[in-house]
Request: fold
Amino acid sequence: MKNTIIIVLILLVLGFGGYVLTRPATPLMSDTDPTAQENKPVSEEVATTTDMTKEMVNGTERTVIGKSIEKRNITAYHYGTGTDEVLLVGGIHGGYSWNTSLVAFEAMKYLKANPTAIPSNVTVTVIPVLNPDGLAKVTGKEGEFVVSDITATQAVQASGRFNVNEVDLNRNFDCAWQATGMWQNKPVSAGSAVFSEPESMAVKAYIESTKPKAVIVWYSAAGGVYSSSCDNGVLPATKNLTDVFAKASGYPAHESFDFYETTGDMANWLAKVNIPAISVLLTNHTDTEWTKNKAGIEAVLKIFAK
Reply:
């Protein structure tokens, strides 16, 4: 009897142990569990668009700093190898001010063809199109274009000023922001909050990561160089930047833009975060005035040469 009990106990232990060793593991979360879906790793595609990794394309280093609402790349192009960055920005008003993107493309060609124009301690970064959806609405193209591509009516060009959410990106930055901004005598949407738009958020993230020494933003059309300011007046370095670009280019220099109130302005936000910045307004909506702007860029680069 005793031997029989021992044998039964041994069989029970072996049987339970076999079950433990051979049964399939219970998943911690079901594939259909909403919590499981929320905790999945970020996809490769999303990670690639947010890590701002530099890559070499056709001999030029570039960084995709973000994507527009319609998933067009917002790209920064880099020239030179120095640690001090000078940033040039065009196309914040998309198809309305398409010539600001053209002058940025001209700058890119010049910098690539003339690397010795860039001081050894400087990198020049160009973001030629900050509002790619608004520009594509007017040019019908992704990226670079020529004047003959502009066949849209003036009404369409005006609508191309805004992003797909119909927000004026140059009213979406954190300086005296208001939900409704002004464009000339027209009220325009400035977004639901500061940096509510992916385009403005992309350039904010890039600027905060690189901390450029100076920023030049092109607009049209008034024909002048305007200092940035927010709350505490014009920074001394900004005043110098304004005077240097204006003297070299021949544009008149202005301490402020006072044709009408501009809230949420990109250049003024840069002043708020203590980065010298100027707005260069081309004289009209069609010409790049490249000779003047080339002279201004060259003069600015000399400020930072060590």
About this structure: Confidence is low (pLDDT under 50) at residues 1-49. The chain is about 35% helix and 20% strand. The domain at 43-304 is CATH 3.40.630.10 (Aminopeptidase).
